[in-house]
Design brief:
Number of helices: 8
Helix content: over 70%
Number of domains: 2
CATH topology of the largest domain: Rna Polymerase Sigma Factor, Chain: A
CATH architecture of the largest domain: Orthogonal Bundle
Structural class: mainly alpha
Shape: elongated
Order of helices and strands: HHHHHHHH
Number of strands: 0
Largest sheet: none
């Protein structure tokens, strides 16, 4: 007997009943259809053996029901884990400094912003930034220096080691 011999007919004759039973058991048509589809795929993969069973449809229904139960378990376990852990603590709004820094960074040229963010926020060295951006190290250093100076002007602050002109 070939692998698909009789399977198509079996599928056509039983699919509506199997989905109906799984829908009645689970209460969700989309889940029932998904479980039935997976059960039929498994049946097709083993069709040489399952075709010889007294009731191949019962096998498909049983597999489909087990798939539904496993999905319910995963959902239930996920909900239980969420309840144990609880919701994430509320996060307050960003500080004025954070808002000002983000606004100033947005005004920098892309290359300077990238160099500053990678160096100061991602803690990458000049050499690492150069490798990641495929840019010479001297260029990265220049972008950092220009970007810092531009940020200082935008934020109206003095760079460390510099004297304010005020």
């Amino acid at each position: 007997m070939g692998t698909d011999e009789g399977f198509e007919e079996f599928y056509r004759d039983t699919r509506h009943r199997v989905v109906t039973v799984l829908y009645a058991l689970g209460g969700d048509l989309a889940e029932a259809q998904d479980a039935a589809q997976e059960a039929y795929v498994r049946a097709w993969q083993r069709w040489d053996r399952i075709a010889g069973y007294d009731d191949p449809e019962a096998w498909v229904r049983t597999v489909g029901h087990r798939l539904l139960v496993n999905r319910w378990r995963k959902i239930r376990n996920g909900v239980a884990a969420y309840r144990r852990r609880g919701p994430d603590p509320a996060t307050g709004p960003p500080s004025e400094n954070t808002v000002a820094l983000v606004a100033a960074l947005r005004r920098l040229p892309t290359e300077q912003r990238q160099a500053i963010v990678l160096h100061h926020l991602a803690d990458l060295s000049v050499a690492e930034i150069a490798a990641q951006t495929d840019t010479p190290t001297g260029t990265v250093k220049a972008r950092l220096a220009r970007g810092r100076r531009a940020l200082a002007d935008l934020l109206d602050t003095t760079l460390p080691g510099e004297v304010s002109n005020a």
